[in-house]
Amino acid sequence: MLSIARHIDAYDIAQEIRIERRIHKGSFLIVEGATDIKRFAPYVSNEKCSLVNSYGRRKAIRTIQILEQWKINGVVAAVDADFDRISNSIRKHENVLYSEKHDFDIDWAAPEVVDRYLKEVGDAEKCEPHGPPENIIMKIMLGLKPISVARLMNDTREIPYKVSSVNAGDFFSKFVVDIKSYVRTLAQASGATEAERQRTEELIVQKASGDFDLMQLTNGHDFYCALGACLRTELGRRRVPQTWGSEVEMHIRLTFRDEDFRATSIFRQLREWEKRNVPYGVVHDRFH
After folding, report:
1. Could you give the 3-state DSSP secondary structure of residue 29?
2. pLDDT tens, 93-109?
3. Spatial CB neighbours of 269, under 8 Å, sequence gap ≥ 6
4. Within its chain, how far is the Cα of 199 from the centroid?
5. What's the CA gap between 37 and 78, in Å, rounded?
6. Spatial contact of 283 and 270, defined as CB atoms under 8 Å apart
7. Alpha-carbon distance 280 to 286, whole Å?
8. How many angstroms separate the CA atoms of 110 and 252, rounded?
9. How many CA atoms within 13 Å lie on the side-chain side of 161?
10. Labelling 268: which of 1, 43, 175, 254 has CA 20 to 30 A away?
11. Residue 5: φ, ψ to 5°
12. Which regions of the chain are under pLDDT 50?
């Protein structure tokens, strides 16, 4: 069954907010999806702010533009930066706030959070040789680089394959990607020829040899899938259903604390937005 999200556009979301504005006199925080609703809900004031699902990044930004045209104040969007910093295409906007790293999943996977998570579900003897959590995070991101680059190349249309449906954890072992199997899976899904597959693999390997800011390059979902794969072998003895990317993402989110939120860029951005938009508030009173 097709998701209703496909039939909702930015105008529909803006209309929803305009109607709610008749009753709700506080602020509106627009986020990209249901997971971000769960992510931000513990840190947002229920009395002051209404969380809105935009069903996508583009819709969130477009909704802000429509509401500004309608002169409806007190609305802010929090969206993933994605590859915009790598491509130098971030559009500065006073009512659109971006993740500090590639996306909020990566922002939430701070070393302190990952450390607490690994102490709970990892194997200490297996984790210890890999160093502190920041080393483990970078080791995973470096190993994921070919898949991250493939996402970037898909975004810039340098390769034609759909990469979002492939689970990075299926090709991640011993902190490296099996690039041949990964590209073969992409090619098979699109009916590409063997020559096209080989050319794609060459392009990805060549691109991955470049210098990138891994925090801006790495997709959070891929990171969680890869971390899950490591928890089955290199970092722990977890069973497969416990290490799905969605499970790891949920557990990281549940491990996240108030002090972790206070340390994020989005917290600082929201507080600055509040100062510019008195009397509208977003974050919970306990952070004031």
Report:
1. strand
2. 999 999 999 999 999 99
3. 78, 97
4. 29
5. 11
6. yes
7. 16
8. 9
9. 27
10. 254
11. -60, -30
12. 1-2
